[in-house]
Amino acid sequence: MIEFHLDTRSGLSPYQQLVRQVRQALRLGLLCEGDQLPTVKEVVAQLAINPNTVLKAYRELEHEGLVAARPGVGTFVTATLADDSLAAHGPLRQELRRWLARARRAGLDEESIEALFMTTFRTASEEDIA
Amino acid sequence: MSAVIQAQGLGKRYGQRWALTDCTLDIPARRVVGLVGPNGAGKTTLLNLATGMLAPTSGSIRVLGGRPAEGPAQLAKVGFVAQDSPTYAGLSVADHLKLGARLNPGWDAALARERIGRLGLDPARRAGKLSGGQRAQLALTLGIAKRPQLLILDEPVAALDPLARREFLQGLMEATVEHQLSVVLSSHLVADLERACDYLIVLVDSRVRVAGEVEELLATHHRLSGARRDPTRLPAGQHVISASHTDRQTTLIIRTDAPIHDPAWTVSRLSLEDLVLAYMGTPNHPANPGRNHRPTLEVQR
Fold this sequence. Notes:
The complex is a heterodimer of chains A (130) and B (301). With 130 residues, chain A is mainly α. Chain A is 55% helix and 6% strand. Chain B folds into two domains: 3-213, Rossmann fold; 215-281, no CATH class. The relative contact order of chain B is 0.14.
């Protein structure tokens, strides 16, 4: 079972944050096929948010084919986003750590590192689309 | 689904002063409605009209299809937690539950006991000896155990510290799922309600300034900023809610159903708080510039 949290400064609406957290958990293998998501009542009681926010997030995940609702029982994971690429996470993380260390030695602070990563990331994704 | 509250030209006057004017609402069922406005805007008056504690001076109001406080059946359908979560200081927690059971035909004793147990409240303790948060939870327990279809709460979290406030809203949201409650709660703090409500009413200076589904309100309101220009020359269908100018820049908050095509504007999303502030900061009668009223809103994170 996973636990949701909300970040008020993320710029994403609460429902988008819930959807993203489930996808993230699927990608990282924290959630697998057959696992149950917290019930609407549990999420609502934990985060003090509107029930419709949770329902909307679960509906979207259902629409994407990632989960299915079993009436009266709960919502269950029906697909996985973690594939063979999960095995590549370890080595990639290692490389990224080495890169971060190099960036710090070069005098970049956290904000500059984040800015550099995000701009490069965006440019690269745009090139991929084009 | 039928409406929980329907008001037509509803008004309430105290002597010369109108506490609520020309209020027309149609609130669908199964919503958590946030009633927001500065102190003295008329929130309590509206809630008291909905519970039947006050009679309207003009117009009409129907709650769950009936006249407020019309008879025992109507009274059983609506729960009300008044301002400052009133409890009887000299009575124990158990006394309060006994009182609830005697006064309410649909009383759910098991629910009340379970909730008091979960909150860790000692049944023998007098309400006067409870903390503010515990007293609010006791009042909420009475409101829920009555098993109403609609629960109305007047400023339920205003006097609570942040932790107690969170715990109170957690309990309230859980109850809305469990018992399919419709809820109307008021607050002068938008931030308190931002996550909890899916329907919003902004009341300023005895008038409803805006009311609607939160999602729809957020989708139709935008902040436009760009080089200074005259806000009266916007395309039809773009309604200016608030405008501010520096010598070079104009920033507008507008309401529109259509997409914004003008490339000269930088368009950004509003938070619910921005939206409420925009409505609170604008005078009631744009045609009356002599009126320079600017209600203050406390913003607390």
